[in-house]
Fold GNAT family N-acetyltransferase.
Amino acid sequence: MSLEWKLSTDGIDWEELSALYRAAPLGEKSPLHLQKVFSNSMFKCFVYENAKLVAVGRALADGADCSYICDIAVSPGHQGTGLGKQVVSKLMEMSCGHKKIILYAVPGKEPFYRKFGFLRMKTAMAIFENQKQQVEKGYLSEA
């Protein structure tokens, strides 16, 4: 598998990125939304095979204290190949030097991220746009 890695948003096809999130499947994210969040992220990885986007990830970071890794997506045909691990590793490498690296993951994927050294936070809390839906999906607990 010959892969091309891009670390900037230059020339990104936002429609193609939106389609990757749907296929991964990580839900519906509009091209404009993705353009905004990736453009505002300090670190990003776009991985191509034969000019087709096959994996992506980003990290919001402040350059010193905190880097937040999120939105890791791998095309179904490339899942299980180690590509997701490479994307997370690259974002962790880029985040090196921050006092803490935080990660937000789909419920059930925690064992994958534990392999990198991530541990569950006991005090992490969140407010989502649709709290009830996120409780139902397992992202939040009211306990």
Remarks:
- The chain has a mean pLDDT of 95.
- Strands lie at 3-6, 43-49, 52-61, 66-74, 100-103.
- The two ends are 45 Å apart (CA to CA).
